[in-house]
Amino acid sequence: MGWNTLAIRREDPLLANLTEGDRLYFVHSFAGPLSGDTLASVNYGTELPAIVRRGNFLGVQFHPERSSTAGARVLRNFLSLPCS
């Protein structure tokens, strides 16, 4: 829980203008496994998914609204994704 740095694992429009090492605010104490759907991860003693996407289903493990500039970028990117 708290601030941690992002590790980008693969490119996606949801990650536009985010960079390796951007800091985001994490509050949850649960996590799923890394998979082919993982766009970015975070290290808490082991790598955990921070951002996942499968088709038009997206999820984040952090609170974008509390994550300063990087969180605002994620929200802006989400709002600019095409509806399909």
Description:
The radius of gyration is 12 Å and the shape is globular. The model has no long low-confidence stretch (mean pLDDT 92). The longest helix is centred in the last third of the chain and has 13 residues, at 68-80. A hairpin with a 3-residue loop joins β4 and β5. It has a four-stranded antiparallel β-sheet with strand order 2-4-5-6, with no helix packed on it. Strands 1-3 form a two-stranded antiparallel sheet. The protein is an alpha+beta fold and 84 residues long. The protein is 15% helix and 33% strand.
Helix content: 10-25%
Order of helices and strands: EEEEEEH
Catalogue the unreliable spans. Answer: none
The total strand number stands at 6
Widest β-sheet, arrangement of strands: 2-4-5-6
Oligomer: single chain
Question: Average pLDDT value?
Answer: 92
| Alpha carbon gyration radius | 12 Å
* Portion in strands: 25-35%
The N- and C-terminal alpha carbons lie at a distance of 34 Å
What is the 3D form?
globular
Largest sheet: 4 strands, antiparallel
Helix/strand structural class: alpha+beta
Which features does this protein show?
84 residues, alpha+beta, 4-stranded antiparallel beta sheet, two-stranded antiparallel sheet, 1 helix, 6 strands, globular
In short:
The protein has 84 residues and is α+β, with helices and mostly antiparallel strands. It contains one helix and six strands, in the order E-E-E-E-E-E-H. Helix content is 15%, strand content 33%.
Question: What order do the helices and strands come in, and which of them pair?
Answer:
Layout: E1 2-5, E2 7-8, E3 23-26, E4 38-43, E5 47-54, E6 57-60, H1 68-80
Antiparallel strand pairs: 1-3, 2-4, 4-5, 5-6
